[in-house]
Amino acid sequence: MIAYPHKIFKSMRTGLSGRLLLLTILFVMLAEILIYVPSIALFRKDWLEDRLASAQIAALALEASSGRVVSERLSRELLANAQVEAVVLKRGDTRKLILGEDVPLEIVASYDLRDAPVIDLIVDAFLTFRLDNHRLIQITGIAKQGAGEYVQVMLYPDDLKQAMIDYSRNIFVASLVISLFTALLVYITLHALLVRPIKRITHSVVAFRKAPEVAASRLEPSLRYDEIGQVEQELADMQRDLRSALTQKTRLANLGTAVSKINHDLRNILASAQLLSDRLANTEDPNVAALAPRVMRALDRAIALCSATLTYGRSEELEPQLEHVNLHQLVNDVGVSLGLIDQSTITWHNQVPIHAEIMVDADQFYRVLLNLGRNAVQALGNDVGTITVTVDKSEDATIPATIPATIPTTIIDISDTGPGLSTKAQEHLFEPFRGSSTSGGTGLGLAISKELVEAHGGTLALLKTGSAGSVFRITLPTH
Asked: Which of 131, 139, 145, 418 could pair with 157 as two cysteines, CB 3.0-4.6 Å apart?
């Protein structure tokens, strides 16, 4: 649809399409100027050659007359028809003034059109406008049809200057019309192909920024397959992904509010349970006394976990408090918490040496192993299987690129004999609410574990997975 004139003029002041219109007119006019420069020189040359041809015909007419004598009236008529003041024709060694009065002729400038360079013709054309209209110029050209070696004419430049001005005016008018017509066509084309789609994209971006949660602000891609179509498709996909992420974050914020309320009451309950566990430690029953330390450690960790529950919602974890931790004992504690010690279905296989120690935050690393162990239990389900924890400090262990090769590393592998992870689960394995491998899971366990391991300067990665089971590898710098 073609825009109305007042809309076009308004867009010329403010919009991209108006600037394109002005630039198109400017460029077309520039092209016309480049064409005009040689064309005005050619027009001048043709005009002068016409005067030479007319003067030569007049001179030949004089030679054909009896006695080569003409009346003064006929002479003036011949000069007027040729639009010159005098004609000189050279034949052999003779150079004769064929037409003209027997008075001295004052020549202000001479031009030779025989084999004149193009640059000289262009320069002479523009210098013509500076000539005095009351002083003669001399033009030399080749005589036509063997009428002599050359022919010269003397004339006043006023008619030449006027003819060049008229030609320039016609060229300007034609160039202006062509420029406007071309610019209008270019404007309409660019407006339809570029400006209108860009405005549509811009409006969508502005609307999305104001209300990203509103589905109506999402850009609907067109059926174009060029760069504009690709931008529209990418923008639509980005808006969809951002809206999904915002929805997840909103739900997570609401969940955090609910958890903060639950956390307050749960801490009070755990505090009461902790008082009870302190009394159990002093009981005379040996079985209860043996279990009391484990219950106390479990309650301490639960209370610490409740205190740090909202930390993840703030996108940060407490700074790890590094200490020497017996890894073998820590793995055993995780097995007890998972209920796998002396369990008949799933075997918790602790292959960590008894005296193996690592420099970590005990509570945070306990959460890492507990999350990985729980995921392995969920992967096995009700099947008979084995969960194995191994440690390797050898030089042959694979070192991630994030840890310099010069730093010793500790490799901890947690493997299971489950069915392995699906391709869909692997795509978003460590992303909250997207990386769960089980139905109904949140995927927070792996996300939190990865964050805690990275806080220790290490890495957590899925080493391999398949029908024979999965292996997660923790790589830590050895302090």
From this structure: 131
How many angstroms separate the CA atoms of 48 and 69, rounded? 27
The identity of residue 65, as a single letter, is S
Tokens of 338: 């998972």
Convert the pLDDT of each residue in 191-201 to its tens digit: 788 778 888 88
Cα of first residue to Cα of last residue in the chain, in angstroms, is 72
Question: What are the φ/ψ torsions at residue 347 (nearest 5 degrees)?
Answer: -100, 125
CB 17 within 8 A of CB 190: yes
| 120-170 residue pLDDT tens | 999 999 999 888 888 888 888 887 765 557 888 888 898 899 999 999 999
pLDDT of 433 strictly over 60:
no
As a whole number of angstroms, the distance between CA 258 and CA 278 comes to 30
Q: Where do we find the tokens 């002729």? A: 105
Per the CB < 8 A criterion, the answer to whether 340 and 347 are in contact is: yes
Rounded to the nearest 5°, which phi and psi values hold at 87? -130, 135
Looking at residue 394, its pLDDT comes to 53
Answer whether 330's CB lies under 8 Å from 366's CB: yes
351 within 8 A of 390, measured Cβ to Cβ:
yes
Instruction: Note whether 44 and 125 are within 8 A (CB).
Output: yes
Confirm whether pTM is higher than 0.70.
Answer: no
Residue 99, pLDDT score: 62
Residue 372: pLDDT over 50: yes
Per-residue pLDDT for 397 more than 50?
no
With helix as H, strand as E and coil as C, how does the chain read? CCCCHHHHHHHHHHCHHHHHHHHHHHHHHHHHHHHHHHHHHHHHHHHHHHHHHHHHHHHHHHHHCHHHCCCHHHHHHHHHHHCCCEEEEEECCEEEEEECCCCCCCEEEEEECCCCCHHHHHHHHHHHHHCCCCCEEEEEEECHHHCCCEEEEEECCHHHHHHHHHHHHHHHHHHHHHHHHHHHHHHHHHHHHHHHHHHHHHHHHHHHHHCCCCHHHCCCCCCCCCHHHHHHHHHHHHHHHHHHHHHHHHHHHHHHHHHHHHHHHHHHHHHHHHHHHHHHCCCCCHHHHHHHHHHHHHHHHHHHHHHCHHHHHHCCCCCCCCEEEEHHHHHHHHHHHCCCCCCCCEEEEECCCCCCEEEECHHHHHHHHHHHHHHHHHHHCCCCEEEEEEEECCCCCCCCCCCCCCCCEEEEEEEECCCCCCHHHHHCCCCCCCCCCCCCCCCHHHHHHHHHHHHCCCEEEEEEEECCEEEEEEEEECC
